[in-house]
Structure formats: structure tokens, C-alpha cells
Design a protein that fits this description.
two-stranded parallel sheet, 2 strands, about 70 residues, globular, 3 helices, alpha+beta
């Protein structure tokens, strides 16, 4: 049976998924909007040299957030 998640539950499970990644993390979403906690977790994975790839369609990111994402690959 399908399980429907509200925003809080979605954020929780997404955080757990990111925290649990040890080699590679591929996130695929039709929509992308990052909160501060997600940025912190993604920056930590970047620091640990975990291969993180994000594929998304629509985005509500500000230009500085887009630059932040691009900077993660450096």
C-alpha cells in the first residue's frame, strides 16, 4: 500500500537518506528547494568526498544558492 508523507516526514526521510550515504548519493526530484539543514548535510558529504548528484526539473533557488551548489564540486 502507498504511504503518503507530509512535508515534515519527507524532510526527515530525506535527511536520513543523505546522512546514510557512504559512497554515492543520487537525488532525483521534479522540484528542488534546499533548506539550511539540507545544505549542511550536502556540504558535509562534499567534504567527505562522497559522490553527490542532484537531478531536478523545477527550481526555486536564488542565484546565490545555485552558486553554492556549483561550488560543492570544487
Amino acid at each position: 500500500m502507498a504511504k503518503f508523507l507530509n512535508t515534515s516526514a519527507t524532510n526527515y526521510f530525506l535527511e536520513e537518506l543523505i546522512k546514510g550515504a557512504s559512497d554515492r548519493l543520487i537525488l532525483i526530484s521534479p522540484f528542488l528547494k534546499l533548506n539550511d539543514r539540507m545544505k549542511e548535510l550536502l556540504a558535509d558529504k562534499n567534504r567527505l568526498k562522497i559522490d553527490v548528484r542532484i537531478v531536478y526539473g523545477k527550481s526555486e533557488l536564488q542565484p546565490q544558492e545555485i552558486e553554492w551548489l556549483r561550488g560543492l564540486t570544487s
